[in-house]
Amino acid sequence: MLTEIGFRLTGCSLISVPGFVNDQGPFDFTVDTGAGVSLISPRLARQLEITAAAQAVIAEVGAKGSQDTGKVMGKLMPQLKGKADGKMISEVVKELLAG
Question: What pTM value is reported for the model?
Answer without folding.
Answer: 0.63
